[in-house]
Amino acid sequence: MLAETMCSAVSAAGLGIAAVTAYRKRFLTATRIAAYSLVPVGLVLTGVVKWVSDIAFKPSVWLGFGLLGVAWLLFMITRAVERRGGGSRKERRAAARAARGEAVEPAASAPSLGAGSSPQAARARGKQGKQPASAGAGEDFSDIEAILKKHGI
Known about the structure:
By secondary structure, the chain is mostly helical.
């Protein structure tokens, strides 16, 4: 009831401002103000204001919004875990079939990382291919020395 009264007062004030604006011979602006001032009364008459006030002041509605938020959060968590877990659903199914000894078709859309198709295997190959730090250390320092000499240090 209070919301309807406030909307009516806002509309009346807007129509008053539109009348004053029309009196000053600014008809286009007055028409625009009148259009905006009729919106609150239209919302009251269509029932939108009652519907919004029912939503805003019912705890069960807010509980429903909270549950929708929790559901969305759970979906996002499962997506993040799935992406970190190593591959898509097709790749996990293929790995499960291989573990059971069934024939596995190579995945056409899966990116190839070499002999072992898992990211862990790629990391292991990357660690094996690295040279010891002492082998390339002289070259690194020569670059640094050249830069320091260039700047007169």
